[in-house]
Amino acid sequence: MLLNRPSPRSVASLEKLRDTVPEGKFVPIDCDLQDFDSVRTAAEEIKAKGYTSIYCLSNNAGIMAVPDEITKANGFDKQIQTNYLSHFLLTRELFPLIVAASKQYGDARIVQHSSEARHSTPNQCLEEKYFLKQESDGMLGGNKIKWFLKGGPWYRYFQSKLASSVFTQCIHDKLLASKNEDCKNILSLSAHPGACDTNLFDQHKSGSYLMSRIIEPLVLHFFFQSAADGSMGLLKGMIDSRDNVVGGTLYGPEILGPKINNNMRGPAVPNPLSPCESDPKGKIMLWRTSEQAIGATFDI
């Protein structure tokens, strides 16, 4: 278990896991996803603890609609680095252990947590500027939220979640093309939670009585599902039978119509890829800028 900037909340979550599964073994490892050196250190610590194989790497951590600021350590947008670039680096660093697990167990998993927000990028595509090093804060749309899900903070979030889904497709393509037979049994998967009630929304909740006591509870009740229900897509990708999951697939609540992105709640089922998720040029750009960001190639 990687802990991104350990907090009382994450410590409490760890204790809850231990209480729920007393026979389980949970090993917390500190990892600051806003610092590439911290990610590399976390990967080395995993290896130093004697782990020689990893059956499933689940890249789940994320932040949402935060200010237009760059990371002090590396100079990338905080949201892009936390939600995507550091996951790219972590996957690269731990990939040999995932290959070893595939050889040992017959299959292994790499699972990204995307979002229905991946469909909401203004230009319906990945844009290279979001994945480049920035000179200073405020270079990627600023902090103004024009309306719910509109404005710079949201657009950066949408890009990060689309990147997670495209990253899944990139890995899937490279696994299929790999000459290493052990790579053939690795599944690259992703998930989205629909709309679920988690602490990701805390910073955006209104302080007014009408909003906080009446409108927001009604919205949560009728349109959102629980965090537990929202985790089903992620869990399906991580632990469901190999017979029930297909590489390159994103699992989450079902889209009800071809142009209606209202899959906010429901069981985790395969979601069709949009053109921006399967665009070859977008895949090439994302992989290239990601390697440039971490200063290393990622060969599969």
List keywords for this structure.
300 residues; alpha/beta; Rossmann fold; five-stranded mixed beta sheet; two-stranded parallel sheet; 9 helices; 42% helix
Distance between the termini: 24 Å
Unreliable stretches: 257-261
Note the overall shape: globular
Helix content: 40-55%
Indicate the CATH class: Alpha Beta
- What is the string of helix and strand elements? EHEHEHEEEHEEHEHHEEHH
Can you walk through the features of this model?
The structure is a single chain. The chain is α/β, with parallel strands linked by helices. The chain has one domain (56-80, 106-294): 3-Layer(aba) Sandwich (Rossmann fold). It has nine helices and eleven strands. It has helices at 8-20, 36-48, 78-105, 152-177, 209-223, 227-230, 232-239, 275-278, 280-294; strands at residues 2-3, 29-30, 56-59, 108-113, 145-147, 150-151, 186-191, 196-197, 225-226, 250-252, 269-271. It has a five-stranded mixed β-sheet with strand order 3-4-7-10-11, sandwiched between helices. Strands 1-2 form a two-stranded parallel sheet. It has a two-stranded antiparallel sheet with strand order 5-6. α5 (209-223) links the parallel β8 and β9 (225-226). α2 (36-48) packs parallel to α3 (78-105). The protein is globular, with a radius of gyration of 19 Å.
